[in-house]
């Protein structure tokens, strides 16, 4: 397995064949259906870190009717589940064209209010959001991850929050140190080496 294969979920490969598959997830008695394919992150099952992130947010977040931004949305798991369970509008963005296509299909199928855009991090974003959520693409490198996390501050409302998940062995503690001057950070959950963090502008 070479590096190109590992990195394909945050790049675009026009020669990649399609093998669609369906993934089902249930939360609070609501059944979600996701279409996935080759060339997107966690194509065969819901990523464990993403699941812990969503379930922690749903447990902790007392607000609803939010304006949410899902950065690096993949096929839409984070944004779609949060949009439904928090009765919120979600904008979902990714640099991967296939992921954006799948995400929009899944958004419509699960009847989520919002939209899906191709965007490299925040390049096509103008609004501010009550919540930004991301499971950042660690394999894209620390610079890319920090770009997503640090620049979120420019797209948050005054009461807005950034939620993200990073594995301890993929640099969670060093990422926290990089963010401490910009945000007040809380670790809300630790499970199987995954840290779920909530950050607010200082």
Describe this structure in words.
This protein has 202 residues and is α/β, with parallel strands linked by helices. It has one domain (3-201): Rossmann fold (3-Layer(aba) Sandwich), CATH 3.40.50. The protein has helices at residues 3-7, 48-60, 77-85, 97-109, 142-151, 172-179; strands spanning 21-27, 30-36, 67-71, 89-94, 114-118, 129-134, 156-167, 183-191, 194-201. The strands form two sheets. The protein has a seven-stranded mixed sheet, sandwiched between helices. It has a two-stranded antiparallel ribbon with strand order 1-2. Strand 3 (67-71), helix 3 (77-85) and strand 4 form a beta-alpha-beta unit. Helix 2 (48-60) runs parallel beside helix 3 (77-85). The chain is globular.
Chain oligomer state: single chain
Strand content: 25-35%
CATH architecture name = 3-Layer(aba) Sandwich
- Output the helix-strand order: HEEHEHEHEEHEHEE
Strand-pairing-aware structural class: alpha/beta
CATH class: Alpha Beta
Specify the number of helices.
6
The main pleated sheet reads as: 7 strands, mixed
How are the strands ordered across the major sheet?
5-4-3-6-7-9-8
What helical percentage do the residues reach? 25-40%
């Amino acid at each position: 397995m070479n590096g190109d294969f590992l990195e394909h979920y945050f790049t675009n490969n026009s020669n990649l064949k399609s093998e669609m598959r369906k993934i089902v997830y249930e939360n609070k008695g609501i059944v979600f259906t996701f279409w996935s394919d080759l060339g997107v992150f966690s194509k065969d099952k819901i990523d464990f870190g993403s699941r812990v992130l969503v379930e922690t947010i749903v447990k902790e977040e007392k607000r609803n009717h939010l304006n949410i931004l899902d950065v690096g949305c993949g096929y839409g798991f984070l944004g779609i589940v949060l949009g439904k369970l928090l009765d919120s509008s979600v904008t979902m963005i990714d640099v991967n064209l296939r992921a954006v296509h799948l995400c929009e299909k899944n958004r419509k199928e699960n009847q989520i209010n919002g939209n899906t855009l191709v965007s490299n991090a925040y390049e096509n974003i103008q609004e501010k959001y009550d919540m930004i959520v991301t499971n950042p693409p660690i394999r894209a490198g620390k610079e890319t991850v920090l770009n997503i996390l640090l620049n979120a501050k420019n797209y948050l409302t005054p009461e807005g929050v950034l939620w993200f998940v990073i594995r301890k062995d993929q640099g969670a503690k060093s990422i926290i140190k990089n963010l401490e001057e910009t945000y007040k950070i809380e670790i809300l959950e630790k499970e199987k080496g995954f840290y779920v963090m909530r950050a607010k502008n200082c």
